[in-house]
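Reviewer comment 2.1 asked that we show a complete input and output for one of the modelled complexes. We chose the nicotinamide-adenine-dinucleotide case, as it is the one discussed in the main text.
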Amino acid sequence: MSSKLKDKIAFVTGAASGIGKAIAEIYAREGAKVAIADVNMAAAQATAEELKAGGASAMAVAADVTDEAQVNAAVDAVVKAWGGVDILVSNAGVQIVHPLEEFPFAEWKKMLAIHLDGAFLTTKACLPHMYASGRGGSIIYMGSVHSKEASMLKAPYVTAKHGLIGLAKTIAKEGGRKGVRANVICPGFVRTPLVDKQIPEQAKALNMSEADIIQKVMLKETVDGEFTTVADVAEVALLFASFPSNALTGQSLVVSHGWFMQ
Ligand code: NAD
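Response of the prediction step:
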């Protein structure tokens, strides 16, 4: 184990799968105590057990990020166990695709609730502990290339992911003098269950083969036709969490094999 995050306490949402799980693993490797917060408690517990078996401190906490009482209870449980929260990764997310004119209003609201209410509620629950500790903290929102760029069929996802940049900039300003940084990671396509589910759905919606969805839609604009990996995204999450000063705040960093260049 190395120690870029020695004794830091991290609360990672959606950490039972995919990108969140990889972030939990790299934080644990770097010496942090990691709370695996997820709506899927069985998977969260399994992830926490894996981390503990590797010698890390980890705990699973049940939280649907759209539910204020559950989020507050999960953060309280972590603070009670470990004494605070230094790093929040608001990562939990889902994808639902439809053309706008067919998008059920309930599904639009569900998407905004998970991606935006979830970011708001977890931030609201963790910030007072970061302020009170005197150590400040690092808040990381899982955006997407879709925080900067649009794709067809993804209206609420693109809207919510753009919104996270506004939230991060606001928290960067509010938290700056108290040592709290806020940043957004903007990955390109990463092969996780979230993306595996989209491939057949998009193939159907766009009347294309699954291979064409991957090469001609998802990876078309990359510089090398490659998927971004969970490890790539976790490295950026480590950079934002471990950065030693307030110089790196209010930023959004795209990690996408050049799909989007700013
Ligand atoms: P994933 O499906 O592998 O993992 C998502 C996790 O979030 C799951 O463990 C799930 O149980 C949890 N979750 C879902 N709804 C929740 C809720 N209401 N409360 C708490 N937990 C909930 O997905 P992933 O690809 O790892 O995605 C993680 C984040 O990365 C999402 O915000 C997603 O939008 C973003 N992202 C993914 C990609 C990609 O290509 N995979 C690209 C850019 C951004």
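Residues 13-14, 16-20, 38-40, 43, 63-66, 91-94, 114, 142, 144, 187, 189-190, 192-195 surround nicotinamide-adenine-dinucleotide (CB under 6 Å). We note this here for comparison with the apo prediction described in Section 3.2.
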